[in-house]
Design goal:
Keywords: Oxidoreductase. Pfam families: CCG. GO terms for molecular function: oxidoreductase activity. InterPro entries: Cys_rich_dom, HdrB/HdrD_reductase. This is Succinate dehydrogenase/fumarate reductase iron-sulfur subunit. The chain is built from 14 helices and eight strands. By secondary structure, the protein is α/β, with parallel strands linked by helices. The protein folds into two domains: about 120 residues, Glutathione S-transferase Yfyf (Class Pi), Chain A, domain 2; about 140 residues, Rossmann fold (3-Layer(aba) Sandwich), CATH 3.40.50. Strand 7, helix 12 and strand 8 form a beta-alpha-beta unit. The chain is globular.
Length: about 280
């Protein structure tokens, strides 16, 4: 019997990058998972942190829904992953806060009993590394610059996945496709997306430094596994990078190509990426 997982794309991915969600769902189903969604889900709450102490109620509500379904959550966004894991850590450490949260959830006939299993897409794919290797039918000859979503790894004592400052998980997933994971000077630095709502100019400066570092390394394109990273480095790239646009691909899209799937099936519409792929696929 296949394992049921709840795919939680988050607000940004749902509204701006549905191709990321679709490619991830196809890949997870191909691995044998029964992929379902979280009915009546809300924003994870991370965007409200710092604005109101009630932000954790959004997070707890989603976790309580998942607990009721008795299935693990798989996330596509670093911010969502971080919020879900940090809030559970907080509630386990503060029983009084958990009681207060559950008093509010009781009005909706919900109850949260941490811990609800939460994994980012990178984590669940890495656990199936061997299976993915055996599924590869097309080796990709590209140099790919990995963009590590900071909040999936930090703080290390809560996230408990990979090295918090020098992760290697994306390198392992990129290389199974035959592609080269291209090192670059800003590889382990934040892309700046977390600053966008507070200080857009600082976010653009950080994005510019990261994009220029990837280009200087000789990479063909960047690879993201987070809607926030993709928003800054691809969708908003023209705000700070005025040279030839540098293409960006989502993790499940790259793996799907290596499995023999077409760019169209993977939702790849970027013209620079399409041109690169026509020589190979």
């Amino acid at each position: 019997m296949s394992e049921t997982i709840i795919l939680y794309p988050g607000c940004l991915v749902s509204y701006r990058f549905p191709e990321y969600e679709a490619a991830a769902k196809l890949l997870l189903q191909h691995l044998g998972y029964n992929v379902t969604s979280l009915p009546h889900a809300l924003c994870c709450g991370s965007f409200l942190e710092g604005s109101t102490p009630n932000w954790i109620n959004y997070t707890a509500y989603n976790l309580a829904l998942a607990a009721k379904m008795q299935s693990p959550l798989v996330t596509l966004c670093g911010g969502c992953t971080n919020a879900f894991k940090r809030v559970q850590h907080m509630l386990l450490a503060e029983p009084q806060l958990l009681s207060l949260v559950n008093a509010r959830l009781a009005r909706l006939n919900l109850k949260l009993e941490p811990v609800v299993p939460v994994q980012h897409l990178i984590q669940i794919l890495l656990t199936r590394h061997k299976d993915l290797q055996e599924m590869v039918t097309r080796f990709l000859p590209f140099k790919v610059a990995p963009v590590y979503p900071c909040q999936v790894f930090r703080p290390g004592n809560i996230m408990n996945f990979d090295h918090p400052l020098r992760p290697s998980s994306l390198l392992q997933l990129i290389t199974l496709t035959g592609a080269t994971a291209q090192n670059y000077s800003q590889e382990y630095q934040c892309c700046g997306s977390s600053l966008y709502m507070v200080d857009p100019q600082m976010a653009f400066t950080m994005g510019k430094i990261k994009i220029e570092s990837m280009i200087a390394s000789g990479a063909d394109f960047a690879l993201t596994a987070c809607g926030n990273c993709h928003l800054l480095l691809q969708r908003l790239q023209s705000r700070y990078h005025h040279g030839i646009p540098f293409p960006v691909i989502f993790l499940p899209q790259l793996i799907g190509l290596a499995l023999g799937w077409s760019p169209s099936r993977m939702g790849i519409a970027n013209p620079q990426l399409r041109r690169l792929l026509t020589n190979v696929i």
